[in-house]
Design brief:
The chain contains four helices and seven strands; from the N terminus they run E-H-E-H-E-E-H-E-E-E-H. By secondary structure, the protein is of the alpha/beta class. It has a seven-stranded mixed β-sheet, covered by helices on one side.
Amino acid sequence: MIKNRKSYSIIFIGAGRVACHLSRALHDAGHEIIQVISRTEESARTLANVFGCTWGTDIAKLLHDPDLIIFSVRDDVLQEMIFRVQAGTALVVHTGGSIPIDVFEGKVRNYGVFYPLQTFSTGRTPDFRKIPMCIEANTPGNEDVLFALAGQISDV
C-alpha cells in the first residue's frame, strides 16, 4: 500500500482521451507523470512530451517503483494487459466504468477503480473540479489514497 501524501509518481498505461485529460489534471495538482505506455509510439510520445517523461509501447518495460499505475485503456484489452504488468507495491487502478474491481484480484497486490464520471470529447477540455470521481479499492488504506487523490482534482 502506498502512503497517503500530496504528490505521487504516476505511470499511465494508455494515451487516449481519458488518459490525456486525467494525466493533465493530476499533473496540475502536483503529481509527477513519470512514464506513458501506449499501443502506438505516436500517442505515447505525444502525451509523454507534455510532461517531459519517458514513454514506450512495451508494458514489460515499466519503470520500477511508481506509486500509482493508471490503466486508461479499452475495456476489451484491460484484463490481458494486467497479466503483463509487474506492479510491485504500486497502487494499480483502471478508469473504466463498466469493469469490476475484481479484474485485478490475484494479479496485483494493491488495486482499485478511479473512474471519472464524464464523457471525454476531442477538442474540449473538461473542468475536473465539476467531474464526480467514482472510487473503489481493495483495502480501506488504498481507498483513502484514492479519495484523497480525487479530492485534489475534483470538488464533487
